[in-house]
């Protein structure tokens, strides 16, 4: 789960990581009021969306009067910001953060991530901040420092100092940098985070070091014991389809293709997506209904897949071990009877109670295309999708 920049800054501040003075606004009036309260004569207005790259997309504006703050906020509210990270759908701005604008001397990069290879938390840092880590990796790969942390001992002072020196902080700044590093590590551990990113970690004219932008992501599997974090969830920033799936206990990832997939088991779901591509189609989603799915759950999954406007054919691919093919078949029939469908549906069943499952499909009298193997299923769904497309194209032309 992701949270907003202002929320991250608030959390990190509790761990000793400083950032400029700021206030959150839900209206332009509130934004101007915050500017007045913060004082000074220069502010930054920042769109709060779950994405980086806001600067380039017009989501970060420097203003030199309270009325300019009002105008910048006014323009951002309700706007759909499309950044390099949001995809073409973008994300809508409902909150803006107003901060005192500071005089930046230098921008560095600091992140803590989970390194799967070493199974440890890893600090990734660079003296070249401000741009995204992908750009740093492409332009100045030699500037990137990576340090893994032993979970039994935590981040040691000498490691933190080494990182601080590599970031080119002056001896007088090392202590501050070390405090920030330790704070980030502590926040990561204490909050069940999966990532902390400060980009830029800025060095100001007076030599102080502050987090100018900050991002925190959390482990969804630990949210049950972090109610204070769950509360920060902002559903307006999440993929509607994925959110609905999570609410129903299904693992779902929305994709850009048009063949909806309902599969049990993550490995089989991956293989199914590959087979669809091999057959010349594109999957619209990854959906794992899990083991032991009841007819009701299958029907829910079906409705979820169909709610995606891009879906023009559906493939149900079940290899039942713990699952039962008859239950899955019942779920499919239940979903189709409740809401008839005018796109092709291909079902491939194998494993426990396969005979009963196939009988249920056959007896339903529904126009379900059946397949025996995975490759047959992928071929059939892609062929049926193509035929359906030409037919509906002809029908439209005839009107
Ligand atoms: P992102 O584009 O979503 O990563 O948003 P950031 O918060 O990182 O802002 C983008 C850029 O705006 C930063 O890299 C800074 O160069 C600039 N910026 C942000 N805050 C300030 C500030 O207080 N003063 C100045 N001068 N620039 C700022
Ligand atoms: Mn940034």
From TrEMBL:
The protein's name in its UniProt record: Succinate--CoA ligase [ADP-forming] subunit beta
Keywords: ATP-binding, Kinase, Ligase, Magnesium, Metal-binding, Nucleotide-binding, Transferase, Tricarboxylic acid cycle
The record's free-text note on cofactor binding: Binds 1 Mg(2+) ion per subunit.
Matching InterPro entries: ATP-grasp (IPR011761), ATP-grasp_succ-CoA_synth-type (IPR013650), ATP_grasp_subdomain_1 (IPR013815), Succ-CoA_synthase_bsu_CS (IPR017866), SUCC_ACL_C (IPR005811), Succ_CoA_ligase-like_bsu (IPR005809), Succinyl-CoA_synth-like (IPR016102)
Domain ATP-grasp positions: 9-229
Family listed: Belongs to the succinate/malate CoA ligase beta subunit family.
UniProt keyword Thylakoid present: no
Binding site for substrate: 264
GO biological process per UniProt: succinyl-CoA metabolic process; tricarboxylic acid cycle
SUPFAM superfamilies: Glutathione synthetase ATP-binding domain-like, Succinyl-CoA synthetase domains
HAMAP family registered for this protein in UniProt: Succ_CoA_beta
Gene source species: Dichotomicrobium thermohalophilum
Pathway per the UniProt entry: One-carbon metabolism; formaldehyde assimilation via serine pathway; Carbohydrate metabolism; tricarboxylic acid cycle; succinate from succinyl-CoA (ligase route): step 1/1
Residues the record lists as binding ATP: 46, 53-55, 99, 102, 107
Positions annotated to bind Mg(2+): 199, 213
GO CC terms: cytosol; succinate-CoA ligase complex
Protein's job: Succinyl-CoA synthetase functions in the citric acid cycle (TCA), coupling the hydrolysis of succinyl-CoA to the synthesis of either ATP or GTP and thus represents the only step of substrate-level phosphorylation in the TCA. The beta subunit provides nucleotide specificity of the enzyme and binds the substrate succinate, while the binding sites for coenzyme A and phosphate are found in the alpha subunit.
Cofactor requirement: Mg(2+)
Pfam families xrefs: ATP-grasp_2 (PF08442), Ligase_CoA (PF00549)
Reaction catalysed by this enzyme: (S)-malate + ATP + CoA = (S)-malyl-CoA + ADP + phosphate; succinate + ATP + CoA = succinyl-CoA + ADP + phosphate; GTP + succinate + CoA = succinyl-CoA + GDP + phosphate
First-tier enzyme category under EC: ligase
Keyword Ribosomal protein: no
Subunit relationships: Heterotetramer of two alpha and two beta subunits.
PANTHER family membership: SUCCINATE--COA LIGASE [GDP-FORMING] SUBUNIT BETA, MITOCHONDRIAL (PTHR11815:SF10), SUCCINYL-COA SYNTHETASE BETA CHAIN (PTHR11815)
